[in-house]
Design goal:
This protein is mainly α. Helix content is 66%, strand content 3%.
Length: 455
């Protein structure tokens, strides 16, 4: 049966290899089960509800990817879009989380239409490589700042009394700026929460340096244990590791689609759709290539259309369950590296996600100081792509620079993307290199300008 479903012999693999690969993928991305509830909990959502949505949504969509497409790719709520959803949309724009979920649902439907009409492929092809890379790097910096804030390693808007500022100035001279000019500064290292977060960053970073499989998950577990041992986290009374999931806590179908159609949310829907567009496409193609299913040199990508369709539907399905944008995870390459070549790898990972529904009490005792370091580490992984941007070419480097800097410094993924879409074709046009720009970039630039001018 498994041979018939997944063509194991054709792809030169075995059931044992696929199951081990699926377990490997799960271990490397299981941190999302701890991270998503803590981030969306800050946005006002019930942590138990988010955990159920993450495990159920990630599990079902990943299994669908394995059965329908036969790709070894796992999906779950994306880290960058989790941060965008919680901090930019819900907290920054004061939009109810139900309405934000409605925007995610609509973006999924838009994404599906773009996929079925092949417009999605056209957009991805029309956006220059430097812009795609800049979006990845910018999101990496964006979630790093969020991780630094949540961990307490960085504080915002330093405000000291005149006496304290005078004392600091006397001891450090011109190195101390006026309080009103200080935006970011180091956190309070007398705070146990901050010290535990720092410990989490260091231990996870060291594990990554040693190329330990599942470094992020191990870092979360070790930091959680230390937090409980030192009395900085507590286990509730009547605690049990295993429990039947309480579906009454779930946020199924609580999204507010009508409110999301409000004109002010057009840019939000656009941002969800645009970021997911490149994030998923890069992961799908990269993982399929590494698994030797696809060959970018010849343009052979069997099943890619199906994979993109499942990915698009997963976005809307996740919002119906109460999760932010579900997307393909680059950690899937860990499973491929362990030998995964078919959808059985994805099915194995999906089943493990579903089984986690029965371990929700264990997951909920993980403190935020154990999960915030993940954002910092993931940010470090994402920023490495900056090496592939040609900063010697000003028409490529300057728009990329704006994308990268405006995302974290304006606390908005949308602002960064919008700036790049407008400036890139503009500088090419001014320098007489308009022919280097795909026509779709001009269309996107006009749409962005209309949005900022009219709305």
């Amino acid at each position: 049966m498994l041979e018939k479903l997944f063509s194991l012999r054709e792809r030169n693999t075995t059931v044992k290899t696929e199951i081990i690969a699926g377990l490997t993928t799960f271990i490397t991305m299981a941190y999302i089960l701890f991270l998503a509830p803590n981030i969306l909990g800050i946005a006002g959502m019930d942590k138990d509800a988010v955990l159920i949505a993450t495990a159920l949504g990630g599990g079902l969509v990943t299994i669908a990817m394995g059965l329908i497409v036969n790709y070894p790719i796992a999906l779950a709520p994306g880290v960058g879009l989790l941060a965008f959803y919680a901090f930019t949309v819900v907290l920054g724009m004061h939009i109810p989380w139900q309405t934000a979920l409605g925007a995610v649902f609509i973006s999924g439907m838009v994404f599906l239409v773009l996929t079925l009409t092949s417009i999605r492929q056209m957009i991805v092809k029309g956006i220059p490589a430097s812009m795609k890379i800049a979006i990845t790097v910018g999101i990496g910096l964006f979630i790093t700042i969020i991780g630094l804030k949540l961990s307490g390693l960085m504080t915002v808007s330093l405000s000291l009394s005149p006496e304290s500022m005078a004392a600091l100035s006397q001891s450090h001279g011109s190195l101390v700026p006026p309080a009103s000019e200080t935006l970011l500064t180091l956190g309070n290292f007398h705070d146990p929460h901050t010290l535990l977060s720092l410990f989490g960053v260091i231990i996870t970073g060291l594990l990554m340096a040693r190329n330990v499989q599942g470094s992020l998950l191990i870092g979360v577990i070790v930091t959680t244990i230390v937090a409980h041992i030192t009395g900085n986290a507590s286990i509730p009374d009547n605690f049990t590791c295993l429990a039947i999931p309480d579906m009454s806590k779930a946020a199924f179908f609580e999204l507010d689609i009508p409110s999301a159609f409000h004109m002010g949310l057009i840019t939000i829907i656009f941002s969800f759709t645009f970021v997911e567009l490149f994030d998923s496409m890069g992961t799908l193609i990269g993982t399929a290539t590494k698994a030797k299913i696809a060959d970018p040199k010849t343009g052979s990508f069997p099943g890619l259309g199906k994979a993109m369709t499942v990915d698009a539907i997963g976005v809307s399905v996740g919002s119906l369950l109460g999760a932010s944008t579900i997307t393909a995870f680059v950690e899937s390459t860990a499973g491929v590296g362990a030998g995964g070549r078919t959808g059985l790898t994805a099915v194995t990972t999906g089943i493990l996600f579903l089984l986690c529904l029965f371990f929700t009490p264990l997951i909920t005792i993980v403190p935020s100081c154990a999960t915030s370091p993940i954002l910092i580490i993931v940010g470090a992984l994402m920023i490495g792509a900056i090496r592939d941007i040609d900063f010697d070419d000003w028409t490529e480097g300057f728009p990329a620079f704006l994308v990268i800097t405006l995302m974290p410094f304006t606390y908005s993924i949308a602002n960064g993307i919008s700036a790049g879409l407008v400036i890139y074709p503009l500088v090419k046009l001014i320098t007489g290199r308009a022919k280097e720009v795909n026509w779709i970039m001009y269309v996107l630039a006009i749409l962005v300008l209309i949005r900022y001018i009219a709305f």
